[in-house]
Design a protein that fits this description.
Elements lengths: L1 E6 L11 E2 L2 E2 H15 L5 E5 L8 H11 L6 E4 L6 H7 L14 E5 L2 E6 L12 H14 L4 E6 L9 H4 L6 H10 L3 E6 L6 E5 L2 E5 L6 E2 L8 E2 L4 E8 L2 E8 L14
Parallel strand pairs: 1-4, 4-5, 7-8, 8-9, 9-11
Antiparallel strand pairs: 1-14, 2-3, 6-7, 10-11, 12-13, 14-15
Helix pairs in contact: 1-2
The structure holds fe (ii) ion.
Amino acid sequence: MSRILQLTDLHVFQTPGTLLRGVDTGGYLQKVVQHIKDTDVAFDAMIVTGDHTHDELPASYQAVRSLLSPWIDRLWQVPGNHDDRQVLRTVFADRIAGEADAPIQFAFELNNWLCLGLDTHLPGAVSGRIGADRILWARQIADRSAAARMALFCHHPPVLIGSPWMDAIGLEDRELIQDWCVSDSRVQLICCGHVHHEFSARLGNAEVLTTPSTGIQFSPEGSTPRFVPGSPGYRIIDLQSDGYRTQVIRIPDVAIPENPADTK
Ligand SMILES: [Fe+2]
């Protein structure tokens, strides 16, 4: 068995203690990191599925790097809408190949699984786009791989989640990922961020899962963005020879603002 930890939507600020709707996102990430250390969970890879920072400043990325430094040798990343590829790439230069604003994507194999990180970042937009070139890159790697199963990791989910306000800022060309997943039954798991809560759906032979933020939690209800009280979380994914198991871990004993929607 191989184990992956997925962290998503960190939204860290340059200045420690800065609040996002009443939530200390940097402090919450510290709690998540401490929880991982305290539980002494062994894992093979840590994947961050975007929105590393909220302000997209170098010092914020440095703060994230410092917190995740115990696992830098097994860290893989894709950008979210709240990311600047150039700054992300500069701060994590030893982990992210390529230059300037090139897509940030990854591929590695674990236990007969091919794990692919897809870049859905669309500069200047909250919504995402994968684009034909990035899908071609992924499909070519998949075609060359003898892995029996595939897991995809990206920021924007490639399906509608049934939330009017969130679906309006979703993946614009999600049919590109959908077409691929329907045509290749090896794609069995797609782990995403962006929606800041837990959600699941089927796509071809794959289960699409979203994961709670390590910081602030959203509600899918309503027609406008809505923040809800909730503990920070992350996901454990166990890749087995005959399938996978996964669970969301919520951090206990974290002070949660009672009504984050009403606080600034
Ligand atoms: Fe986010």
